[in-house]
Batch of 4 targets.
Target 1
Amino acid sequence: MEEPQDLQIEILDRPAIEDLIGKVENVADQPGAAERVSQWRAEHGTERATPMARSFVVVGSTLMFLHPCPDGVVLPFAAYPDGTVKVYTDPEHAGLSFYRDGAM
């Protein structure tokens, strides 16, 4: 899988990324999270994440998930109903931040 066409990259410091990862993991563990993800996909289509993605959650109208970089560092992603995908990354991983099928 190539870099998504509508990819946005937001650079954050590592503590902010870790905080966001913790929030996504917390919501993913809540009852009903999987059902909300299924409903989001039914309404908006697939986010095109690879099988390595995990901790899918819906926050408002946004589907969020976690995905590792090739070096194993996990980054949070947001998929929007219009097909735009945003990755939250630190400067060190900005070039590796999008997911690639079979490249990891």
Target 2
Amino acid sequence: MAKLIAVLNVIAWSGFWAFGYLALSSGSEAGSQTVVAILLAALGGALGLWAYFWLIRHSEATGYAKPRNRVTITEEETA
């Protein structure tokens, strides 16, 4: 499953950069094409972020990557 998500991550970020470039470089006469390119770039960015964060959580859970330093709040600190 992790390899499938990793492939999705690469494809999503590629789509983000490709359609983002198309949206930015299109002229003012291509209105509807620009909107479609913006929507596809946003979809690629959202899927890329989701897949990236999933891979981070998965690698920490399986022990492949060291977990982040997180502060735990004790009962003494909340009183």
Target 3
Amino acid sequence: MSTINRRELLKFAAAGTVAVGTGALAVQVLTTSGSQAAVEDPAGLDETYKGRRIQAAPAGLRAQSRDAAPAMPHVLIDGKPLHVMVNGDGTYTSVSNHYETFKSLRAVARAAVDQLDGAQLVPLHHR
């Protein structure tokens, strides 16, 4: 029976550390790429979900100016605007599901319809 000397033990430990680190990196890359927003149809969305009409269009750019900022996406439920915000990672959040993120405008609009449960959407007014 052979014994493992200190040098061989350190080589095995180093190899194990590299393997674990590589596996952890692979898991991080796979889960991060899965959280990216889905590609939106540039033509927008117009569908009926649970008897409610959902219309959505991805954000475009505001009028060309020196300090032009990206506009917010437009989502309508039965013709009334749903306030939708774009998160830093490209996912969406709405005023009706503020603590959840969604990968697409379709998903955020459908979640709002589910949350409304038949109630009418009341537009948000900024003062």
Target 4
Amino acid sequence: MTDTVTRAAEILKGHRESIDRLDAILVYTLGERFKHTQAVGRLKAEHDLPPSDPAREAKQIARLEELAIQADLDPEFAKKFLNFVIQEVIKHHEAKQKDA
């Protein structure tokens, strides 16, 4: 390999190692987030509260879009990601209410 190809391979390896660490952080962070949302779901089920809160969800989406802009992340991507997470949480909350 040429020096430039070797150097590119080293840089690529460093980026991939960082990506792997960040992926682990994301997974553990989502795990921690879902522990809290599951607790919220149990609380809502115990008190017969609705599984979703559209006003809070809208505020959270707007907040995340602003954070995305500050982080130089596509806000549309951030919005789609949070919507996905919210839908998963709502499904869990609905399931908890059926069990209650």
